[in-house]
Design goal:
The chain is mainly alpha-helical. It has helices spanning 10-14, 22-35, 41-46, 49-66, 69-78, 84-87, 113-122, 124-130, 137-147, 151-158, 162-169, 179-192, 198-208.
Amino acid sequence: MEKDFDQMNYYELLDVQPGASALEIRSAYNAAMQMYQPDSLVSYSFFSREERDRILALLDTAYFTLINEAQRAKYDQTLNGPDMELHRGVKKPVSIFDIRRQSAQISIRKNHTAELKTKISQSRTIAEILSKQEIRGADLKAIRNELGVTLEAIHQETKIRLDYLNSLEEDRLDKLPATVFLKGFVKAYLKSLCIDPVDDVSTRYINSLPHKN
């Protein structure tokens, strides 16, 4: 079953391993805070103002607990997860958010919006895909290719990691984050391509997925 933010422990909220260093915790916190600011595409696409405020408050609590050695040790003792000590010293996986700016990557600029919408209105292929009851990763990829937009451009616009974007299009569910993040990613992906209605199309994609934690 999908985990809500309120059900996640502090390590899960920041997407770090229990053995993460202070630097890793700080970096993960900064990345997450950027992702959930009001001007973030993922945040704007998926979360209401109230939900975003709640998430930011949870991230603050998680960060200030884990960055303090004494409070972190006390918190660790309260966790009932699978063998916390087994995770000590394990290298943290790359954060689900990639906020690095790479100048070589192409960004989707605002002045491309009209061009994208024109292509969408004139494309029979896109119309046929959007008429489907179920939308899969291959459909998203077909739409993107029809519009001539690169994954690098979507990555630059949304700050979603490239490997997640690839996994999204290839239906590699085992490589994708929890649904609580995935919903926002799909909406940001669609918004960057100017696909409407975002809520309806993203819902059809999510509903087409097998059960995913």
